[in-house]
Amino acid sequence: MTINKITPVDSRSDFFPGTLSKPSIWADPGPTINMGTRVTIWCQGSQQTEGYRLYKEGSFLRIMTLRNPRDARGHVSIPFVDTHDAGQYQCAHHSSGGPSELSDPLFLTVTGVYTVAQTSLSALPSSVVASGGHVSLRCGSQHTVDTLYLLKEGGTDPPWKMKPNHSADWFEALFPLGPVNSSQGGTYRCYGSHVSSIRVWLSPSDPLDLQVTSLYAKPSLSAQPDPPVLIGDSLTLTCGSETGFHSFALTRDEPPPLLPYILRSQQSPNFTLGPVDRSTAGQYRCYYSGHDRYLWSAPSDPLDVLVAGYFEKPSLLARPSPTMTSGEIMTLQCRSEGPMDTFHLFKEGHTRPLQHHHEQNSGGSLQVNFTLSPVTSAHTGTYRCYSSHSTSPYLLSHPSDLLVVTGISEDQVPTVLRSKTLPVHTVSGKWQDTQLWHHWGGLGHGSTTVFFHNLRDPCPPRNKFHGAAKCLSAKCLSVPTRTPPLGSMQMLYHLHLLAPQHKLDTDLPLIAHTPGLPTYLKVLLGDLGVHVLLLFLILLLLLFIQHKHQRKHSK
Asked: What are the residues facing 108 on neighbouring strands?
């Protein structure tokens, strides 16, 4: 049965509570209806029901139409809701034994009466709130109102209502929510009413989606290619989630105190940004969701999207050289063409700056030094540097030219120098705590020469080593590493390597072969001692020859 206008026809004098259960009542699509739209009021009792009656404001209004004999529900439809349809409704059902008690009240509210007087709704600090957090929904109107209402669409709870604060021509109320949980995610609207008609409201506000995060584990966020990216290039950000989730959202963090206001979902985890420009630069996070668009994961860790190409490129130099020696201090010097207050050092394979330096003085700087200490094989690789202004931290200069920092890995050490550690066989007390020096490339055609010396009597600086002839210490000597002399003795050393393009210090233990007796005597006695010994031997030989000659003549 359809009615265009509902009017009271009777009082409740015919209502007598019987033994039937209390029915339930509801409105479809809901108890808050925009003026001029359709609403259906439903009432449901038991299977013994023979009919239903509808009451408004406590008075009998109408017999309700049964849907069909097998469906114990009655209904009344209002095709075009007007202001006089607003109010409190109840229903009862009856059988041969008498009527039931009245249902709980249904408050039908008509909105949109004053189309020019619309309310507004916003969230503070954001409509994206973590589970357990707090948020305030601000409802306001420029139209004079006595009460402001907050209603969640599709919910069963009655609307929240508040008396507004009045300032100038603005009426406002704050509805606090929290600690927020998953049940509070959804779409909200704000309404206002006059004191004379509490069931007739102003036009609703625009919908506000309250999205609850941190309900699932945080995703990962990666970039291809790795930032920084040049102006005009294309960039893809990928959000990695747990399995079974099909909605993804990407947000760009705004400067404090602004937070992401809404999560706009898409089905693909890949977000293509490009061609990139200054509007692309910033800090990004991503989220994922399941079937409920109001419930989301925790945010990913932030990813900085740095856009390069806005300032002249700096230069990058290595001090003392780009060929590193383990344990030493290496300085990478980044120099800009003009005063800049921030410098960034990147290494290929890293998504974040390896180091960055910010100048505190307002004038900026022309150069900064990045220190690598102590240098190890992990520092080998390709480096670039950039400069920027702190006022635009995500906009960088053009990249410097590539700087390749090199060193020697263990697989470059000759096999003879990579033997197992054995106990030290002492040749002489002077040879305790020795260090082995290995050098190749300095004698031409890849020849190999080994130096070793007492740590208490070091050889000349490493950059002066060009062969055994340059070793000024009496305790330095050369030993062929591939064909050690016969009869040599074994000692334990630590390794130092130098090559035309590589240098490396290492504590790699090895067994080096000391020279045979002639070379040992040279080291023990020194060059002058050897000469004296040779002269002495020659003299002995001459004396022996003379003695033999004299014996021959005496016969």
From this structure: 87
